[in-house]
Write a structure and sequence with these properties.
The chain is mainly beta. The chain has one domain.
Length: 108
C-alpha cells in the first residue's frame, strides 16, 4: 500500500495538519514529486496526494523534498521548531497553486 492510499484510507478525521507552505506551477505542467518513499508521485490539478519524504541527503533530512514543475527542478521544505516534516499532504488547485501540509497520523 502506498503512503497516499494509507492516508486516504485513514480519512481526514485521523490526520493532523502540522504546518504549511505554498508554491505554484502552471496548470499546463505536470507536477512530479521525486523524493518520496513510493517513487515519483504525480500531482495533477484538482488532486490531493500524500507522500513520505525519502531522506537521502542533507536537504531531505532537514524536512525538504524535490519536485518538478514540468521539466524544471524545484524544491520545498517545511520545518517548525526542532521537528522536521516526514509526511506531506500536497493539494494542487485547478489554477496551479500547490499547498503543501506537513501531516501526522492521529493514533488515539
Amino acid at each position: 500500500m502506498t503512503v497516499d492510499e494509507e492516508f486516504k484510507q485513514l480519512g481526514e478525521d485521523h490526520i493532523d495538519i502540522l504546518n504549511h507552505t505554498r508554491d505554484s506551477c502552471d496548470k499546463e505542467n505536470l507536477v512530479t514529486i521525486t523524493s518520496t518513499t513510493d517513487g515519483d508521485v504525480e500531482l495533477h490539478p484538482g488532486r490531493t496526494r500524500y507522500f513520505r519524504i525519502r531522506k537521502f541527503d542533507s536537504y531531505t533530512k532537514s524536512g525538504g523534498w524535490y519536485w518538478k514543475c514540468g521539466n524544471t527542478d524545484e524544491q520545498s521544505r517545511i520545518t517548525w521548531g526542532s521537528q522536521r516534516g516526514v509526511y506531506i499532504k500536497a493539494v494542487r488547485t485547478g489554477g496551479g497553486v500547490i499547498d503543501w501540509y506537513s501531516v501526522s497520523k492521529i493514533t488515539s
